Prior knowledge:
The protein is of the alpha+beta class and 155 residues long. It contains 2 helices and 7 strands.
Amino acid sequence: MQSSRPYIARALYQWLLDNDLTPYIVVDAEQEGVEVPRQFVQNGQIVLNLSPTAVRDFAMENAAVSFSARFGGRPMQVMVPSEAMIAIYARENGVGMVFGHEPVIPSEAAEDEAPQLNEVESSDEVERGDDASPHEGQDDESPPRKGRPSLRVIK
Length: 155
């Protein structure tokens, strides 16, 4: 399965432009294949302005973002592999998205070892304390549930 990062980045880029905002990307300049002006790299990262007025020959493909731009008056071809893109956001208000680490998803060749879905007790059965398993004779070695699941936002 292909990475969702370039698809999401393209959508956010277009959305930012449609709202008259200036799209910036944060790049991990230490990743293999990254071609950026090294003199502007700080702490292994660089922030690049992707505004149509700041770049030429812009292309945001699945494999990479590429464009020509001037840095310190000197023209340069920039190449940012999709995996090296850390975030895309609007300069004006910071609205955008930080990309997390994407897990490696097995290819179709490994279908024999693909994860399988298993039936679990419903929350009603757990709350009522039903001991009867829908599949009698099976060993249930799953850990007991600890209440209702929740989502916690960490900033």
